[in-house]
């Protein structure tokens, strides 16, 4: 029994040795490509998905760089269901394969692709060629420095691939391209070198997830009737709007927690001043009190005439920063006030002057006739 076991182990050793002896790291062409799982990821927003089942894919561009002396299979070509470049005669391959224009949403976005090459000829002991990922925001006229390259250990491992990677084995890499949110881009797979080896790219997927926004509706009244021209500030004037004749103002906001203030001359508000947007539109009801509250800051400010023809004389006892808002909450003017000043507005309508300093702020309504 022991002899039989030893015989079996011996045969296995001979067989294994003969198999491994056939692996030639120095080969320029794969004779036994290893395929890992190659799948196109599902996403809420698939911006691009290409498996190279036809060549050249619609909208893609195959272009040689200035240093290229390559031809034939030394260019990006159909490798039988994937994009491929081969080493043929040692010519310089400076080859770009780039995508159609992709609009990256305001949010998060990733690029995922499958690839293979020769570690022996492209990393160690020889660095005969490189496979890089680059991005252009001007239609391919200029390209970024590489966002990924096969011989950078940090870039490769951060993209989800082991180091060192293995010759002629397919890997799947993913990189974050959210930095290009809101821009139109092209993505290039750039092969550069004259002493590399068979290199392939497949299953290119760009995914994006937009940041959701939700409508927040404020309704402001005095307990009985709606209040018009109430100035609403959210997160310290990051968002501003004024209520309409129905006492309503709306904002489109991302999911987060916010604070707000409401201002109308002759009215005060002492209720809750924070709210949270989670995953749906929300309504906020605000009731202001008409009363005797006097803002100490306001006692040192006078505006005349009001209404005016567009020129207001403003007298302040202390230094103030002035912001002028139109009826939509848009800031149309800012200036620093000291003593007597003139503020001019060219268009008829209702406006709001906000005076602020280290002691606080106050808002007053003005009319240009």
Outline the structure in words:
This protein has 369 residues and is mainly beta. 8% of the residues lie in helices and 44% in strands. It contains 3 helices and 28 strands. The protein has helices at residues 2-21, 119-122, 153-158; strands spanning 46-50, 61-64, 77-78, 83-85, 93-98, 102-103, 107-116, 129-136, 148-149, 171-176, 184-193, 199-210, 213-221, 231-234, 239-242, 248-254, 256-263, 267-268, 274-277, 282-287, 289-290, 301-304, 311-316, 320-325, 331-337, 340-344, 349-357, 360-368. Strand 24 (320-325) and strand 25 (331-337) form a beta hairpin. It is elongated and about 90 Å long. The relative contact order is 0.12. The model is unreliable at 1-23 and 37-43 (pLDDT under 50).
Descriptive tags:
369 residues; mainly beta; six-stranded antiparallel beta sheet; 3 helices; 8% helix; disordered N terminus
Based on DSSP secondary structure assignment, what is the total number of beta strands?
28
Radius of gyration, rounded? Answer: 33 Å
Largest sheet: 6 strands, antiparallel
Q: Uncertain segments of ≥5 residues (pLDDT<50)?
A: 1-23, 37-43
| Apparent shape | elongated
CA(first)-CA(last) distance: 110 Å
Structural class: mainly beta
The helix content, as a percent range, equals under 10%
How many helices in DSSP terms?
3
What would a concise description of this structure say?
With 369 residues, the protein is mostly beta strands. The protein is built from three helices and 28 strands. The chain has helices at 2-21, 119-122, 153-158, and strands spanning 46-50, 61-64, 77-78, 83-85, 93-98, 102-103, 107-116, 129-136, 148-149, 171-176, 184-193, 199-210, 213-221, 231-234, 239-242, 248-254, 256-263, 267-268, 274-277, 282-287, 289-290, 301-304, 311-316, 320-325, 331-337, 340-344, 349-357, 360-368.
